Amino acid sequence: GNSVTQMEGPVTLSEEAFLTINCTYTATGYPSLFWYVQYPGEGLQLLLKATKADDKGSNKGFEATYRKETTSFHLEKGSVQVSDSAVYFCAQNYGGSQGNLIFGKGTKLSVKP
Amino acid sequence: DARVTQTPRHKVTEMGQEVTMRCQPILGHNTVFWYRQTMMQGLELLAYFRNRAPLDDSGMPKDRFSAEMPDATLATLKIQPSEPRDSAVYFCASGTLVGMGYTFGSGTRLTVV
C-alpha cells in the first residue's frame, strides 16, 4: 500500500549547519509530495510541495526534489537557524486532488546556537 | 490569516466519560479531516468529509468514536466512552485541493485518566 518513511530523529545540529532529512515513499501511481512542519504546541503547516517528477519545492531556504527513480523527496537546507527547530513531516497525497494525506512519523530537529 | 479553530485546547477526563471535540474549518474549505497524533503511532487519519458528507472513517474505532458535520462551519469528534488509550492530540484540518495544502488547527490535547 501507500506509505511514507522518513529518517528517525531526533536530529541535533549547530546553527549554520547543513540539514538533510531523508524521505522515501511507496505508492501506486505518481502522488504529490509534501513537507509539513510542526512547531511546539501548534498544528502542522505546509512547508513545500512538488507535484510531479523532477519538480523542486522550495520555501524559507528549504528545498526538496521529487525523485521518481529513487522514490524519494529528501528535505535540505544549507544553513539552519535556531528558529528551524521543529518536527518535520513528509507526506504524500492519496485519493486524488481532493484526497487525504499519508504522513511519515516525523523527524524532530533541534538546532543549537 | 484564516485559521482552523479547535476547542477545547486541552481536556482531561476520567475513563468512561464522553468527550466532544469541535472544529471550525476555514470558510470556503469543503474538505475537513480529523487526525490523531501520538508518539507511538505518529499521525493517523481518523475520518474526513467533503461537502459535509463522510468519505472515509475507516481509521476510527467505530464502537466508541463518531464524527459529524452538522453544518459547514462545525465538525465534531466524539468519544464515548473514553479510555486511557485515547489520550493523544487530535487535529482538525481543512482545505480544498490537496495541492494547495491543508490548514491544520492547533489541536486538542486529550488526557483520559
Describe this structure in words.
The complex is a heterodimer of chains A (113) and B (113). Chain A has 113 residues and is an all-beta fold. Helices cover 0% and strands 51% of the residues of chain A. In chain A, a hairpin with a 5-residue loop joins strand 5 (33-38) and strand 6 (44-50). The model of chain A has no long low-confidence stretch (mean pLDDT 93). With 113 residues, chain B is mainly β. Chain B has strands at residues 5-7, 10-13, 19-24, 31-38, 42-50, 53-56, 65-71, 74-79, 88-95, 103-104, 108-112. Chain B contains no helices and eleven strands. In chain B, the strands form two sheets. In chain B, strands 2, 4, 5, 6, 9, 10 and 11 form a seven-stranded mixed beta sheet that branches. The interface between A and B is medium-sized, with 23 and 23 residues.
Secondary-structure topology with pairs:
The complex is a heterodimer of chains A (about 110) and B (about 110).
Chain A: E1 3-6, E2 11-14, E3 19-21, E4 23-26, E5 33-38, E6 44-50, E7 56-59, E8 62-65, E9 75-77, E10 86-94, E11 100-103, E12 107-112
Parallel strand pairs in A: 2-12
Antiparallel strand pairs in A: 1-4, 3-9, 5-6, 5-10, 7-8, 8-9, 10-11, 10-12
Chain B: E1 5-7, E2 10-13, E3 19-24, E4 31-38, E5 42-50, E6 53-56, E7 65-71, E8 74-79, E9 88-95, E10 103-104, E11 108-112
